[in-house]
Amino acid sequence: MNNPSVKAALRHQLITARRAMPADVKAQADERIMAALLTWLDAHRPSSLGAYLAMAGEPELMPLYQGLEARGILLAMPVALEKQAALVYQ
């Protein structure tokens, strides 16, 4: 998906749909996402992982992040060094 306008439209559509979900449904979806990520992590065993802090409407993965240190996985968070520039993970 290299078209920025298509990507932005899809992101907006998905966030709008998540915002419309009842809180309990959203929490269940987040649990399923975290379970799928744990399965992937167990299969691939990365030493580091790019992560993010959830903004409005995005899946909340903080409970997953809190357990990754015990697995020896280093988290890198994105930082915007300049407006309109690519994010840098630190």
Question: What would you say this structure looks like, in words?
Answer:
This protein has 90 residues and is mainly α. Helices cover 51% and strands 11% of the residues. The protein is built from 3 helices and 4 strands, in the order H-H-E-H-E-E-E. A two-stranded parallel ribbon has the order 1-2. The longest helix has 22 residues. It starts with a helix and ends with a strand. The model has no long low-confidence stretch (mean pLDDT 91).
Structural class: mainly alpha
- Gyration radius, rounded: 15 Å
Strand order of the largest sheet: 1-2
Task: Report the helical percentage.
Answer: 40-55%
Strand content: 5-15%
Assembly type of the chains comes to single chain
Query: Secondary-structure element sequence?
Result: HHEHEEE
- Low-confidence runs (pLDDT<50, min 5 residues)? none
Query: What's the average pLDDT?
Result: 91
Number of helices: 3
The tally of beta strands, per DSSP, is 4
Task: Give the overall shape.
Answer: globular
What are its keywords?
mainly alpha; 90 residues; two-stranded antiparallel sheet; two-stranded parallel ribbon
Could you give a short description of this structure?
The chain has 90 residues and is mostly helical. The chain contains three helices and four strands, in the order ααβαβββ.
Helix/strand layout:
Elements: H1 4-20, H2 23-44, E1 48-50, H3 62-68, E2 74-76, E3 78-79, E4 88-89
